[in-house]
Amino acid sequence: MFPFYQKQKKLLFVFIGLVAATILILYYGFHKPSGSVPQEIKISDNETSARRIPPKISIEFDTSLFEESDYKNLKSYGEINVNNEEVGRENPFIPF
Description:
Layout: H1 3-30, E1 41-42, E2 48-49, H2 69-72
Antiparallel strand pairs: 1-2
């Protein structure tokens, strides 16, 4: 056989291997076993729900940073200029 055909044969095997690996990764990545996720959660004796209710999350912000002397000693060097004027053309893509 010619070396070109051997190289082409190797590339074909590599391509088939990549396709097989992609199929396996997609299958096992999206397929969930039925036993891993509870289908129903019992709320009371007579009621069931198909979804889980997330716990309440409380977020607390520590404001003690604003009381420290390092924060109070910060100084503003300059002003931020905010213009309410219209800048540029309404449609920049039309010719002049």
